[in-house]
Known about the structure:
Elements: H1 3-23, E1 26-28, E2 32-37, E3 43-49, H2 54-60, H3 62-72, E4 74-78, H4 85-96, E5 111-113, E6 116-118, E7 128-131, E8 139-150, E9 154-155, E10 160-162, H5 163-169, H6 172-181, E11 183-188, H7 197-201, H8 206-216, E12 219-222, E13 228-234, E14 237-239, E15 246-248, H9 262-271, E16 279-283, H10 291-304, E17 315-319, E18 323-327, E19 330-331, E20 335-345
Parallel strand pairs: 3-4
Antiparallel strand pairs: 1-2, 2-3, 4-17, 5-6, 6-20, 7-18, 8-17, 8-20, 9-19, 10-18, 11-13, 11-16, 12-13, 14-15
Helix pairs in contact: 1-3, 2-4, 5-10
Amino acid sequence: MKFREHRSRSASAFQDSAASAVCRVGTAPGGCSFTIDDTGLPAILTATAPPEEPSRWMAAARADVECLVLRHGALLFRGFGVEDAASFERCIRALSGDLMDYQENTSPRSAVRGLIQTSTDHPASEHIILHNEHSYSRIIPSRLFLFCMEPAREGGATPLADCRRVLARIDPSIVGSFQERGWLYVRNFVDGFGPDWRQVYQIEDRDTLEAYFRRAGVMWEWTSRGHLRTMIRRAAVALHPRTGERTWFNHIAFWHITSLATEMQSFLRNEFAEADLPNNTYYGDGSAIEHEVIADIRAAYDGEARQFPWRRGDILVVDNMLSAHGRAPYSGARQILFAMAEPLDRAAAPDWRT
């Protein structure tokens, strides 16, 4: 099925069914009673009497769950009796089928069970700013799943922001400039700064790596020191394949050097020439992005950021194109598991101009 046809048929069905799904409160298939709080982001589905098997209930309610996720951008299941990684995986499969692999990963994670990993292994003191998973990749996860095994003692929220509303907040002239030029993500694989390319791409030799780059639309070069530099040019605004809505979908602010702490910015600029920075973003033509532009984008994210307190057993379902996510610093033994599903190939999306 072609991408454009899929969007045009399903968008009407979404509009017709979303309102009824949002208002549904009562008894669901499988003997589960629940309530819905749809006043914020995420919408929260709370089981007042949990089902005997959460994954079977979710499979039966899959169509309504999909409508809620598309309407709000994220949906939280609370009190459904999910206790471990195995039951979490069954719920993912009930809602979205097979899990996705982690090729082109940029966040340090630890394997927990199969393709379920920790959400991030970044130090607890670090703030992870809002972003969409793999917005720079050719293959994009449409669905993200997070599961709370253990909430933090303090902090540790997973902030969310509706990317439709983020787009509406950004100065139209800035949006227009990125729509015209796209954005460029430049990454230098430098010893001592993150994983090497073999870990990121799960490839061991250069010939196989370069063949992968050609398929994925990644530009690359090997520097005079033998380091790999990748350059990925993408569109900043995407059309959602189910709803047809425009959404701010990129890592422009996330990877821009000014998003780092001031001390780290100074350190990196002292250590590296501009072209050799471990990560940075530019306009699609390679020109520098003005600091005030990044500030405007950050302000748009901040204006739409919403938080909720994690509770043990919570499952968060995120539409990766509709909602950005991040992580607040924390203290205590926080453990949030993470998985991706429903891959989307941007090559099948002709409306995503670069």
